[in-house]
Design goal:
Blueprint lengths: L1 H10 L19 H9 L10 H14 L6 H10 L4 H18 L5 H13 L1
Helix pairs in contact: 3-4, 3-5
Length: 120
């Protein structure tokens, strides 16, 4: 890793490291490598905010060609777990359940599925 970082710096290239903890929190035996990792800029990606989760829900619903009342997006944004994976999984479940029942996607159906998920 140390040599790779040196090579990339000399080449004018960049290195992107992804992890659950900042690199300075890692146990690194080589002091020079640890020093470089500690100097690296760190960006933390948190949970999506209200605007992002709404935009993602709208996109996921459009991708599945689901026409829904705009209020449904607000309803879901307030009640779903704050993660993109949760939004993706719920929209898939909502679509599949609406198809299985031969019904439109409604707030009532969404509420029913949310309640079923909470009780399971």
């Amino acid at each position: 890793m140390f040599h790779l970082m040196n090579f990339l710096r000399e080449s004018g290239a960049s290195l992107l490291l992804c992890g659950r903890r900042p690199p300075s929190g890692e146990t690194v035996a080589l002091p020079d490598l640890l020093s470089r990792l500690r100097r690296a800029p760190v960006v933390e990606i948190g949970a999506p905010d209200d605007d992002l989760i709404r935009a993602v829900l709208e996109k996921l619903l459009r991708d599945r060609q689901l026409l829904v009342d705009p209020g449904l997006v607000d309803y879901l944004a307030l009640r779903l777990e704050r993660s993109l994976d949760a939004a993706r999984a719920f929209v898939r479940l909502l679509d599949e359940e609406a198809l299985a029942r031969g019904r439109r996607v409604t707030r009532a159906l969404a509420g029913e599925l949310l309640e079923a998920l909470r009780s399971s």
